[in-house]
Specification:
alpha/beta; two-stranded parallel sheet; 13 strands; globular; disordered N terminus; binds NADP nicotinamide-adenine-dinucleotide phosphate; binds ligand G4F
Length: 372
């Protein structure tokens, strides 16, 4: 009940009432609207924007169980003083209140991160995936168009869109999507470009390669592995079942990637940017390194189950981020081994086990300020 009290958005009164606009006084430098704020990236982005002095408005969807665990530490009751984070119920499949929200809160920046983001699930739920990912983006851009808005819009595009195009991939590489998820993201990508070119909206795509963290959902392969390691160490399970171990991904560290989302919207002109580390590793390499770091023999604990193989597989993703390096002066700090260490340590700690210890040091050496 306590958590419900502190976390619930102000749902008993209309979120957008005439009085509400008084609440959102523009005492702060800028105001951002974030879809997908309860997800991995949304939660880090909210943290980063609050640190930058933004007032942050997040859309969350109604759920019968808590879906706000990643932003619990950021949320304050709106009746308190100096509240800079506000939550609004919405769903990407309808976005009923998006026009009202734009009128009332007048955001300077919109980060569209809300998505059915699981590739394998998209094969089971293709129309839902498209409704959320493709039409959700279109709903926001239509609203922006109709308001001839000066809002800056960021679209969370994905390296998954490259599909079968050979690595390395950059902004010029042909898209050859291989999943309903990729197709839906491609729709959103092109809608963003199209609305930029047709209506002069400040609308940019970040084409982000895989990025991970201790906040990664537990059904994505990296977190599934690191969480299994902690559970094996704790004696809760003995085996983890995976699918294809041969596919290769370019894995980066999520907190760094939300910083660059913000940077993309601070440019003078809208544009599209590839963001990745330029290093591609197989799922098997992730398994070997993560189990090795935790002092476990992976071959005793990893088995394969055909149910985790996809109808179609993207074999290799590897970013050529040279445009971002040049134009945004962006380069990744945290590399593959370090991400694995950070994630294994965090999962050990969350089960009350002693972390191996290097994960914390890596964060302290590379971050400060907003990400501690
Ligand atoms: P995530 O953890 O799965 O978060 C997705 C967010 O979208 C969650 O807040 C989720 O809410 C919300 N959402 C899903 N369906 C919704 C709906 N119908 N209405 C409203 N909200 C909905 O994803 P992520 O890893 O943070 O990724 C953020 C974005 O970047 C996504 O668009 C993803 O496709 C894209 N992307 C991610 C990566 C990556 O490697 N992480 C790479 C490239 C692009 P609940 O919490 O209620 O589920
Ligand atoms: O962790 P994954 O599910 O990530 P995937 O499919 O690359 O998608 C992620 O990255 C995209 C960017 O390229 C995002 F747009 C997307 O939203 C998401 O964040 O799977 C990674 C690889 C795949 O090749 C998969 O087949 O791991 C393989 N894999 C092997 N066993 C598994 C498993 N993936 C999952 N989820 N679960 C397994 O048991």
């Amino acid at each position: 009940l306590y958590f419900f009290m502190i976390l619930r958005p102000p749902s008993s009164t209309p979120l957008i009432s005439s009085a509400a606009s008084d609440v959102y006084k523009r005492q702060l430098s800028k105001l951002a609207l974030v879809t997908g704020i309860t997800g991995q990236d949304g939660s880090y982005l909210a943290e980063f924007l609050l640190y930058k002095g933004y007032q942050v408005h997040g859309l969350i969807r109604r759920s019968s169980s808590f879906n706000t665990s990643r932003i619990e530490h950021l949320y304050k009751d709106p009746h308190e003083k100096n509240v800079n984070l506000f939550l609004h119920y919405e769903d990407m499949t309808t976005l009923d209140s998006v026009y009202n929200l734009l009128d009332k809160i007048k955001p300077d920046e919109i980060y569209n991160l809300g998505a059915q983001s699981h590739v394998q699930v998209s094969f089971d739920m293709p129309t839902f995936t498209s409704n959320v990912n493709a039409l959700g983006n279109l709903r926001i851009l239509e609203a922006l168009k109709s308001r001839s808005s000066n809002v800056k819009f960021y679209q969370a595009s994905s390296s998954e869109m490259y599909g079968s195009s050979p690595a390395p991939q950059n902004e010029e590489t042909q898209f050859r999507p291989m999943s309903p998820y990729a197709v839906s993201k491609l729709h959103a990508y092109w809608t963003t470009v199209n609305y930029r070119e047709s209506y002069s909206l400040f609308a940019s795509n970040g084409i982000l390669f895989n990025h991970e963290s201790p906040r990664r959902g537990r059904t994505f392969v990296t977190r599934k592995i690191t969480s299994a390691i902690a559970n094996i160490k704790a004696g809760v399970i003995d085996k983890v079942y995976l699918g294809n171990l041969e596919s290769k991904r370019d894995w980066g560290y999520a907190p760094e990637y939300v910083e660059v989302m913000w940077q993309i919207l601070q440019q003078n002109a809208p544009d599209d940017f590839v963001i990745g580390t330029g290093e591609s590793r197989s799922v098997k390499e992730f398994v070997e390194f993560a189990f090795g770091y935790a002092g476990l023999d992976w071959s005793k604990h990893v088995a394969q189950d055909p149910k985790y193989f996809r109808p179609n597989e993207v074999n290799e993703l590897c970013a050529d981020s040279s445009k971002s390096q040049k134009k945004l002066n962006w380069a990744p700090k945290i590399r593959f081994e370090e991400i694995v260490k950070i994630m294994v340590d965090a999962d050990l700690k969350s089960l009350g086990l002693k972390p191996i210890g290097e994960g914390r040091e890596i964060i302290e050496a590379n971050f400060g300020e907003w990400h501690l």
